[in-house]
Amino acid sequence: MKPYSSQTVLIQGGTLVTPEGVLEADLLIQGERIKAVGHGLPTAPDTVVVEAQGMLVLPGVIDSHTHIALDTGIYRTPDDWYIGTRAAACGGVTTVVDFATQFPGQSLRQAVEARWEEARDAVIDYALHVMVTDLPPGREGELADLVELGTPSVKLYTTYRPNYYADDATVLRLMEAMAHLGIRPLVHCENDALVTARTQALVAEGKTSWRYHGQSRPALAEVEAVRRVLFLAAAARCPVHIVHCSVAGSVEAVARARAEGQEATCETCPQYLLLDASRYEGPEPWRYILQPPLRAPGEPERLWAWVADGAVDFIATDHCDYTQAQKTEVDDFTRTPGGLPGMETLLPLTYTYGVAAGRLTLPQLVALLSARPAQVWGLWPRKGALLPGADADIVLYDPRPEGTIRAADLHHLAGYTPYEGMRVQGRVHMVFSRGQMVVREGQFVGRRGRGRFIRRERHEQ
To answer: Are residues 345 and 435 in the same domain?
Structure first.
């Protein structure tokens, strides 16, 4: 079968999965949109029929926390938007929400426009959060530009001096401004003073090899910062999203705030659900240098319990495509770039260790990977849904094959994966992005530059 686009496609015989349930039905694509779902759907003589017997028909995955072509001002990943979004597509991801970083001297508008230019080779659709790093008192009015640009979310950090760090006064000031504009902040929560003190103590003791990385950023630093940020957001009457929760205590704090009436959401990542700090004692601890670090044995199961209970809104990857050479240049966690590749493995890992392992249902899988990120970030129902009128972003996932994750089979640049050798159940068989087939039988067949920037709607009070 040749790649095709802008025509009528009937996906028949598959099992459609939505957040509400599972149904045996056909799905009709017309051009870039879903035309109809049901049985006996009317078709034209030139309709292309895709047989999906035995397949799960899923809405395209939305990875709403990625770092493609990341430049931190200290480290830079060598990938680009073609490489990054190709890897995402091969894993069933049809939309990424990445970041436009405000570099010194830039306005927020300039930061977004510069990122648009960088993303011109994307092969799937993308949206943007904005990293605000330089918005002193008196310039809060620039935040209104983000609503106009369709990027109504701001990333803040409570750590990473001097380039990203925002103190409590800055966080509160910006949250108060964002609350009036309907902009939702997403916050990296670690207590910078605790992290700095612990890191300095390890350095003084000569304990800087990779195996000490986890000790440098204790779980207490994360949970304290989560609680503090929630408190500040409540004071500002601003909705807030907590990124990459690595411990159950962080999710518990969000759940408690929500139960008290606060609008708060959170995410976790596969690395925190599947890996733990024992990896730092293994032969290759460099594979697991990331912030926050992997946590104590037992913590992944506690996180899974919160995910299954519905307290975690979605699972994202925090994907960073640093190469093995960059990671292994020096055995010193203070001089090693933090971040792991993960977009291409998000769906297979979540299906295998969530659904196939009995921790999640299929509707929960779709909610976590598609519907909820679309709803939280203002993409619903255009994205994340198998509904008439929605973009025809569709994944055919074959749950029958068994396989093993190998870096050699993946499409990012890193040359390694933190999940090397892990078993997976099923594989991505076919992927449609706005009606165009971009993956066929696991092989990328898309086109450079066909991805579009997707404007997002702002949060409504």
So the answer is: no
pLDDT digits (tens, 9 = 90+) for 268-281: 999 999 999 999 99
pLDDT bucket at 459, cuts 50 / 70 / 90? low
2 within some domain: no
Q: ω before 162 within 30° of 0 (cis)?
A: yes
Whether residue 5 has pLDDT greater than 70: no
What angle, 0 to 180 degrees and rounded to 10, lies between the N-to-C axes of helices 248-259 and 299-309?
30
Inter-residue contact 67 to 319 (CB < 8 Å): yes
Pair (285, 261) in one structural domain: yes
Q: How far apart are CA 278 and CA 291, in angstroms?
A: 16
Q: Based on the number of CB atoms within 10 Å of its own CB, is 128 exposed (0-12), middle (13-18) or buried (19 or more)?
A: buried
The residue type of 60 is: G
Residue 390 carries which side chain, given as an amino acid letter? A
What is the distance between the alpha carbons of residues 432 and 440, in angstroms, rounded to a whole number? Answer: 9
Of 255, 286, 347, the closest CA to residue 17 belongs to 347
The model's pTM = 0.97
Q: Quote the number of domains for the chain.
A: 2
Q: Looking at the structure, do residues 401 and 253 belong to the same domain, yes or no? A: no
**First and final C-alpha spacing in the chain:** 48
